[in-house]
Each structure stands twice: as C-alpha cells, then as structure tokens.
Amino acid sequence: MENQKRLFKDEEILEWITSLTEEDLETVHKKSLVPFYDQVFVEGKGVYLKDHTGKEFLDCTSQAWTSNIGFANPDVAYAVSEQVKRLTHVRYGFPTIPRIKFIHKLASITPEGMTKIAVNAMGGGAAIEAALKLTMINKPGAETFYSYTRGYHGSSLATMTLASRFAGVTRFRPWGFDRVSKIPFPYCYRCPVGQENEKSCKLECLELAKHLIEYGSLDKVAGILMEPIQGPGGHIPAPKRYMKELRKWTDKNNIFLIWDESQLLTRIGYWFSSEYFDGVKPDITCLTKAIGGGLPMGVTIARKDLIGFNSAEEHSTFGANPLMFASGLVFLNYVERANLLENTRKQGMYITKKLQKLMEESEYIGDVRCPGLMIGIELVMDRESKKPANTLVTDLIEIAKDEFGVIFGTSAPISSDSGSLYRNIVKIKPPLTITQEDSDHILDVFEKALEEAVDYL
After folding, report:
1. Which member of 70, 140, 271, 319 lies 3.0 to 4.6 Å from 120 by CB, making a disulfide possible if both were Cys?
2. Beta-strand relationship, 221-226 and 284-287
3. Do 123 and 227 sit in the same domain of this protein?
4. Number of domains in the chain
5. If DSSP codes are grouped into helix, strand and coil, which group holds residue 283?
6. Is 39 part of a structural domain of the chain?
7. Lowest mean pLDDT among 27-41, 134-148, 244-258, 376-390
C-alpha cells in the first residue's frame, strides 16, 4: 500500500499542540459556544496533571471520573499510536481487530447472562438512549419509563428528560416529558419519606415508588432507569436490600431494570455493580467514562436473550472507531494485570475510615459515603439541621487546588438557590493507581483545606 507523504515537519506539529500564548487564552472565550476554565492542562502522568504554568496537581476527579488507569498511561499510548498508523476510521458496519477483541474481552467479565454488547463513540448519553430503544424493541407497545430523583443520565434533550438535576439551570424544557416520570431515590441520609432510623426502615420509599408506578401510569411501563450508586446527585449508594426487593418486583411485573453505571465500572472496586449488590443485576446496563481508557466510548450491555438492533436502529458515523477499541482493550487488560480492583477497595477503605474518624471531630461533616474510590463527603452547617454547606465546599475546593495542588470535585448546583442539595458534596475520585502515600496526602490536604474554609464562615 502506498504511504502518504508528510507535509509538515515534526516541530511544526508540536508547535500546534504544545505551544500557547496569552493572547490565545484571552481571546478563545469569544469564539467558543461553551464556557471553560482559564487553567489549561498540558500534561499528565499517573495521578498528576501539569498546567500551562508548570504547576502540578494531584487530581481527585480523574478528569470527569474517566482516567481510571492514570493520565497518559504508556500502554494505552502505545496501543493508540500503533493503531493510528494502521487505520483511524471505518464505517460502523465494518469490524476491526480491536473491535472484535474488545467485545470478546468485555463479554468475558460482564455479569452472567449479559453478553449482548453495542458500542458508540459518543458516550453515556448515547448508551442510555440505546438502552431505551432496546427496551422498546423487546417490549412492543411499552414506551413509558421511570427514573429517579437526583439522577443524571446525560445532556441530550432525551436524556435530560430522564435526569433531575437540570431543573432551574437550563433554558429549555426537555423533550418527551410525557413518557418519563420520577420516583424517589433511597437517599438514607435525607430520607425522602422522613424515616430517621435505617434499622427500623421498612423500605417505605420503595413501596411509594411501586404505588406510583402501579397506580400512576397511564400506559404500559417499559422500564426503570437508575444509577445504582448515584454520582452527580451526591454519591449515594442504594441500600442492598432495596436493590434486591426492586429486582424481585420488576421481575414479577415484567418491567425492565436498566442501570446507568457510567461512573461505576472499576471505580467501586468491582467490574460491575452487581458484584457490590450481591449478585443483583439489571436487564440492561450502560457504561462510559473509564471504559474507553481515556478515549470517548459509550457501551450498552444487555441480557443475551434479548432481540438486538437492526442496522438502521443503532449506528453512528464514528461508532466503529478502532482507536477507542484499542484503548478500551488495553484498559480492561491493564485493570486486570495491575490488580487495580483490589487496590481500589484497599485505598478506598483506607480513605473512608480516616474520613469517618475525622467526621467524629468535625461538626461540618454530615456523612461519608463510598464504596471504593467513589467517595463523597457531605458537608453541612450543623448535624441537627443538615443544612447544606455549599459555600464551605466551594471554598474548600478552591483552597485545596490553589494552595495545596489537590483537585477535589463537586456537582453543579440544581439551581441558584443556596440551599441546593447538590453542591455540598466533596468528591474524592482519583485514578485507581493511587498509592498509600497519595491517599495520605489527599487526606492531609482535605483536613487542612476544611479547617481553613471553616475560618472563612
């Protein structure tokens, strides 16, 4: 095959991708439809990022909870660089070697019986929409769905209908609202039905959800969509007994249970949430974030007995991108060989126990939630009222980043109301490769930043 001739020198291309002027940074905002930060990250290695000024940061967000095997992972870099020399794009209907091997590898670790896989290059929103379409294919005539309060499933017009957290933030009403209704998420720290004692809880919130679905649905119900452990809504794991009873009820009523595990794959110390939930599994699950090894990818996984799509129902121009499959294949194998699931459980438990100890000493820490390295700390003004400490979180995050070089995460507010229950969560979700030394540094910075932020109140 004839090689294409090089048109540019190496230094010309490097100039394009590595050089930045102050004028570039100052004027780019006027040319972008989407706002972004002034801080420009130019390099990453392991759990650290470096910005355009040369300052380094330990990143506890894994950049949108995505770089689970670290930044600029050398094995991913090699696989992508070799693949890009061979082939960068094919139409969706054509398989490639990385695509075939990725599907085989992923199917080998999915929950038992869930081996039907569809992949796109657009991320979690597209994976969610594929799950809805697949449900309707397998339940003809059923087009009504239920999703949970505080949930987040994407920013397309369709997936925003399924989410809760955009109310009061966006300037338009989502489409298809007549086909989606909400049910309360089992948020034990702020129980939606007023239960104050988890030990005496009789899953009243589940009974309420069942009542709403049984008596409030005008049409045949297709499925229930949920994050088994909510991410943007506050790092809230559903109780295991809730998930067990919900699965029993959906089976009895022939309602599909769809999980959005976009943030959960490997981050909770397990491949899939079904391992954490003692074998409870959905009919369809959706992945994005880490699954692509740092490249865009959305995955829909279904029971092997379900009817699949035809070629017109699920495809996209870049959905067969061999680069993402090469990267994703390395990711799956890297997690296995580096034993990162065990490290995630170990470091996650270490950090969580230390934070729970700190919670005994600080009245501003209302709750600490995990599992694994999906850690959320809910800050409150006082334990009794549980009033969200939004300003405290904002100050803490800025102090940690600017003074100590550690990036913590939080959620966008549901509205401008200072009482928002979304912005008072500090998130600790670093790459799964963190060491004991990294964990100690994260804890030390969190405690110092909290003390300093409290002084500003």
Report:
1. 319
2. unpaired
3. yes
4. 2
5. coil
6. no
7. 27-41
Q: How far apart are CA 330 and CA 332, in angstroms?
A: 6
Quote the longest CA-to-CA distance of the chain.
73
Sign of torsion, CA 64 66 69 74? Answer: negative
E strands in 197-354: 221-226, 229-230, 236-237, 256-260, 284-287, 298-302
Under 8 Å between Cβ of 60 and 430: yes
Question: Of the candidates 290, 306, 337, which is a domain's last residue?
Answer: 337
Quote the Cα angle for 90-96-97, to 5°: 155
Indicate if 356 and 325 belong to the same structural domain: no
Q: Are 409 and 377 contacting, i.e. CB atoms less than 8 angstroms apart? A: no
CA-to-CA dists, residue 243 to 121, 216, 238, 279, 315, angstroms: 30, 22, 7, 10, 32
| Residue 157 or 280, more confident | 280
CATH number, domain at 218? 3.40.640.10
Please name the amino acid found at residue 79.
A
Q: What is the mean pLDDT of the chain?
A: 93
What single letter denotes the amino acid at residue 1? Answer: M
pLDDT digits (tens, 9 = 90+) for 66-97: 999 999 999 999 999 999 999 999 999 999 99
Q: Select from 277, 306, 337 the last residue of a domain.
A: 337
Q: What is the pLDDT of residues 346-361, one digit of tens each?
A: 999 999 999 999 999 9
Q: What is the pTM of this model?
A: 0.95
Label the pairing between strands 236-237 and 229-230: antiparallel
Note the pLDDT tens digit of each residue in 204-252.
999 999 999 999 988 899 999 999 999 999 999 999 999 999 999 999 9
Whether residue 332 sits in one domain with residue 345: no
Q: Which domain holds residue 374?
A: 340-447
Q: How many CB atoms lie within 10 A of CB 248?
A: 11
Q: Is residue 289 a contact partner of residue 65, using CB atoms and an 8 Å limit?
A: yes
- The CATH code of the domain that includes 379 is 3.90.1150.10
Q: At what angle do helices 436-455 and 390-404 cross, to 10 degrees?
A: 120
Query: Are 203 and 246 within 8 A, CB to CB?
Result: no
Structure tokens at 115: 């081996």
Q: Which of 255, 294, 348, 400 is nearest to 66 (CA)?
A: 294
Q: Are residues 100 and 244 in the same domain?
A: yes
Query: Is 421 in a helix, a strand, or coil?
Result: coil
348: which 2 tokens? 């996650």
108 with 237, same domain: the answer is yes
Residue 204 lies in a domain: yes
In single-letter form, the type of residue at position 203 comes to L
